[in-house]
Predict the structure.
Amino acid sequence: MSRPLPRRAFLRAAGACVALPFLPSFGARALAAPAAVRPRRTVFLYVPNGVNREAWTPKAEGALTTLPPTLSPLAPFTSSLRVVGGLGHQKANANGDGPGDHARAAATFLTGCQASKTGGVRVGVSVDQVIAQRIGGETAFPSLELSCDPGGVAGECDSGYSCAYSGHVSWKSATLPMAKETSPASLFDRLFTDQGGPGTAEEKARRRRKRRSVLDLVYGEAQALSGRVDADDRRRLDEYLEGVRALEQRIARGEVQGAPGLASRPTAAPQDHAEHFAQLADLLVLAFRADLTRTATLMVANEGSNRSYPSVGVPDGHHGISHHGSDPALRQKIAKVDRFHVERLAHLLAGLASVPEGNGTLLDATLVLYGSGIGDGNRHDHDDLPILLAGAATAGLAGGTYKRFPPRTPLANLFSAIALDATGQRAELGDATATLS
């Protein structure tokens, strides 16, 4: 009988540390374990500036027999979708603090707390960090915080509010936002290279420049392991390692084109927004697959972003057109941006669904929450927020439905339920008044 792998299994060599996916024939990492004991993962995706509700909202509660135009890219995943209406964030309203809805929208989104406008940065602990603090010790990375936009903590970005608010949704404490990773190359290094290896920083950089792939360094170990597993696990291992190699090559191609001949490894993100998101999302799927982390946040853009979207026929700034004044042409442009964002979600769901796990897929064991802290960008409201859930079949989430809750139901009630499911412990989050079933 083969010697079981330890629970945390890696291929190691100088400068590389590649975590392994679940390999059932080695026993310890039991891919075929019942769904109830397989790891639960959570992802929180944030989009800025609200949505065009007319194109976003399903026509009626109940079964999602027809998806609205904005959500149509999610058609392959309809059976695992739950669109949620009626939830809001009262703590994102002014409540006496005046303008600054964009800053409050992001800061309150995962915390359910009012952001302080004066007297320093203060909001609350976000649901992802509640989860990370309780189960993060079981993985190499307690959580991952990813974004297509950098996030600063200095200066004011919205009507007197700190830039820390509009650029972050993940908060470790009431006063400390989690630093975001925007570079796919840097994220790849964090996940798959041995940062604690021997040598100075310059020597490590030299090794990175010389190697063709991180997998070249662990090739011998990979070959030896391949001979110790059954045919099904050999296929799983090959597919996983090829996925790592293919993504590394995609990242490297972008770096070589963008900054050839630099003395240190470039970390610039792809200029193309869709490719930038895709690389971050694909790395997140690999991290989940290897059980390197179980919770993550991913910001498609910072709140209040004025990014343009010429690839979908919207050369205007997103924030600018969100103040549409009921202009039909502007509302149509917003719908195009909304659909572009939903297509990014579809990319992540497809990646999770492509990974077999147990009797289902990685998506079945992952709860993905997608939404914005603003409902209608023109009104700057925080009621009836655009929220949807996907995946989580192992958690018993009934998909293919549209459910509305009574007005003013706190979104934090949903986060309390998510934290309970992910950790098995109840959590008091922001202004939550109950735990949604």
User: Anything to note?
Assistant: The chain has a mean pLDDT of 85. The longest helix spans residues 231-258. The chain is about 35% helix and 15% strand. The two ends are 45 Å apart (CA to CA).
